[in-house]
Write a structure and sequence with these properties.
Elements (H helix, E strand, L loop, with lengths): L1 H22 L6 H7 L8 E4 L4 E3 L4 H8 L6 E3 L2 H13 L7 E3 L17 E2 L4 E3 L4 H5 L6 E2 L3 H8 L5 E3 L5 E3 L4 E2 L9 H15 L1
Parallel strand pairs: 3-4, 7-8
Antiparallel strand pairs: 1-3, 2-6, 5-7, 8-9, 9-10
Length: 202
Amino acid sequence: VRTREHTLASMAARLRSIEELIAAREGYSDAARLVLSHSSGSLTHLGSVADYLDADRHYERAVEASLGELVQYVVVLSEQDARVGMALAASENAGRCGFVIVDAAPATGFEASPHPALTPLAQFVRIVGDAGPAVRGLLRRRWFAPSVDAALAAARTTDDPITTPDGTVFRGSSVVHGGGKAEALGILATKGETRELRSAMV
């Protein structure tokens, strides 16, 4: 019993720590944090792209690597909201901030894989919330390959982003982006650990 209580206490402490990181928007740019913390009536936002994404744990690194800075973009209803947000970031010298405009989001539909080894990255992501369709559009024509070798072979047939389990991203056969720190938790991985801890504590 004591062992179980000690384990639960450790998990609860870890959960509180991660929830504080999420609340503070750890991993976001200064500009994104500024806009997301803004509650004035002049700017209506619907949270960040990451708020709408629940990636399967095994694919979190791949999803975040493929989307890059897009995971911290601010979701807004209109172009005007984006304009207000950019003006706010500029006025505070906070840097650049990206936005996903719900009203301007294109329709999405089935897209054939350009190579047999590829799977749509969207297949490994649950998208929740009213702005889900706009966020889903960001995953359009992004693919997952089971290995670097498979990704490289597929990259010879398309310039679409192709991501491997370790987060290596190919854009065509001549551009590749990879590496990173094994111990570093991305925004989506932080969310994933929170879900995992909550489930284990039930």
